[in-house]
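Retry 2 of 3 after timeout on previous attempt. Resubmitting structure tokens to design endpoint.
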């Protein structure tokens, strides 16, 4: 896969403290990839900083939520011919130097979504986030029918084919539930979920996370429950998600 076929999408909301350094680090790590920052209605100059640092900046208008911002960036990437879309958060929680590893893993498994998993490095993670992420992992893995390591990580690699039906999420899945919903739906379409280990950098974050452990996990669980109810609670999915052989992690 040529570097020009790879796009990197960064959703950003009120990220003036971190976005400039993140864009510069991404440019250094993957200089030939297209880089798209989606400014989700920031009022602190995040978009202007990202633009000055060398990113293409999309401004859909208003604060529509992380899910909507990701979809806007993904659509732009696909329209420009990307065959692989990488995503990372703008709050300093992910390392740009892990992106080439993600891309390499994706190229070796073209029918997989690759997730940067923080499960192996949870020392610095707040206890509330650890608990919330484990709850989400259980439910999302059940609905997907396979074990998913760190279903809430925003550091991912998506093959273009996994993003072919983004329109189905319009009008809902605006915040963090989109990243869970797309894993479930992709798994049902025959895509597998793989992971690579990455460090958990909670202590390095320069602003309070927009993720709300109670409210956002509740939204995710409700979304997953709806999908499970439509499939008769999918007991075989629960069985598959709990089997050790389903833990297909690449280290």
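Retry 2 succeeded. Sequence:
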């Amino acid at each position: 896969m040529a570097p020009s076929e790879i796009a990197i999408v960064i959703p950003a909301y009120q990220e003036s403290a971190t976005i400039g350094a993140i864009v510069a680090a991404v440019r250094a790590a993957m200089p030939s990839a297209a880089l798209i920052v989606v400014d989700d209605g920031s009022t602190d100059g995040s978009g202007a900083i990202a633009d000055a640092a060398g990113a293409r900046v999309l401004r859909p208008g208003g604060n529509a939520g992380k899910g909507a911002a990701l979809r806007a960036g993904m659509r732009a990437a696909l329209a420009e011919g990307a065959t692989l879309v990488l995503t990372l958060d703008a709050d300093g929680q992910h390392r740009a130097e892990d992106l080439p590893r993600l891309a390499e893993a994706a190229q070796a498994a073209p029918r997989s979504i690759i997730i940067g998993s923080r499960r192996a490095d949870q020392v610095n993670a707040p206890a509330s986030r650890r608990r919330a992420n484990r709850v989400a992992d259980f439910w999302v893995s059940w609905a997907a029918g396979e074990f998913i390591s760190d279903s809430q990580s925003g550091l991912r690699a998506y093959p273009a084919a996994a993003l072919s039906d983004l329109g189905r999420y319009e009008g809902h899945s605006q915040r963090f539930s989109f990243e869970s919903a797309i894993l479930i739906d992709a798994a049902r379409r025959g895509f597998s979920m793989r992971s690579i280990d990455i460090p958990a950098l909670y202590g390095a974050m320069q602003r309070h996370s927009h993720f709300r452990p109670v409210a956002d996990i509740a939204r995710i669980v409700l979304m997953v429950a709806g999908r499970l109810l439509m499939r008769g609670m999918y007991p075989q999915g629960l069985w598959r998600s709990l089997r050790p052989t389903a833990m297909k992690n690449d280290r």
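Attempt log closed. The chain has one domain: 3-250.
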